[in-house]
Amino acid sequence: MAARHEEIAEALRRAIDREDYTVGSLLPPETELAARYGVSRGTVRQAVATLTAEGLIGSRQGARRVVLAGRRSQSFAELRSFAQWARAMGREATGRVITQEWRAATAEDRVRLQLDPGARVLHVLRLRGLDGQPVLLERTVYADWISPAVEHIEADCPSVTQRLLDDTGLVFAYGEHVIDAVAAGARDAELLAVRRTSPLLRVRRVTTTREGRPVEWSDDRYRPDAVSFSVHNSIGNNALARKTADH
C-alpha cells in the first residue's frame, strides 16, 4: 500500500495533468493542502518534495510552489534531458547509437563549442524512442574535452546526460534552442519510419555547463506525430514546452 505522501503526490500529478494547476501557477498553501487531504503539513511537504525532485514544481519567494511543467510537457525554462522528460510522463526512453566517429572540428563546430583550431570532436547519430517507438534523431557534436567520456558509453544507453553525471560529475546547466521544420531525407525517413519529405520538427541546441562552457551542440529531429511544442505566456512566465503530440 502506498504511503500517504505518495498518494497525495499522485493526486497532485493528476491535477497538474488536468491543468487544474497550469504551468506558471502556484500550488495552494501547505495549510490548505493539509486540510484538503486530512494530513499534517509534514506529509504535504514530503509529497511536494517528490514533485520537486521530478521537476514538475519548483520554489519561488516564500513557501508557495510554482508549477514548472506537466508530465507530458517539458518547460524550456528548465533543462531536462529527453530521458528525464520521458520518465516524468511514465514512459520508457530508449536510445541507440547509429554512427559514432571522430572528426576534425569544422568552423561551425569551433564557433559553437568555442574550440581551438585543430580540435577533434565526436559526432554521434543517435535514435531515441518512447516505449520502443522511434520519435527522435539526435545528431550531436561533443566538445573535445568531453568526447572521450561519451565515446565509452554503451550504444544503447537510455540517458547520456545521466551517465555523464554519474561518471564525470558533468551537469548540463544551460541550453539555447532554435526550432524550425525540415523535410525528412532518405536516411531520416528510414530511421524514424516516416515517408521521405515528411515534415520533421527540428531543434538545434547548444548546451553548456554552469560556468558557460559548451559541452555539445545538436541537430535534433522529431517525428511530428510524436511530439509538439507549445508556449505558455503570462506576464511572469513565458515557458516553451515540449509535449507529446496527442496531448
TrEMBL record:
Every copy of the HTH gntR-type domain together lies at: 2-71
Write down the Gene3D superfamilies for this protein, in alphabetical order: Chorismate lyase-like (3.40.1410.10), Winged helix-like DNA-binding domain superfamily/Winged helix DNA-binding domain (1.10.10.10)
**Which keywords does this chain's UniProt record carry?**
DNA-binding, Transcription, Transcription regulation
Instruction: Name the coiled-coil region(s).
Output: none
Pfam families from the entry? GntR, UTRA
Alphabetized InterPro entries for the sequence: Bact_HTH_transcr_reg, Chorismate_lyase_/UTRA_dom_sf, Tscrpt_reg_HTH_GntR, UTRA, WH-like_DNA-bd_sf, WH_DNA-bd_sf
What is the official name of this protein in its record? GntR family transcriptional regulator
Q: Report the source organism.
A: Streptomyces neyagawaensis
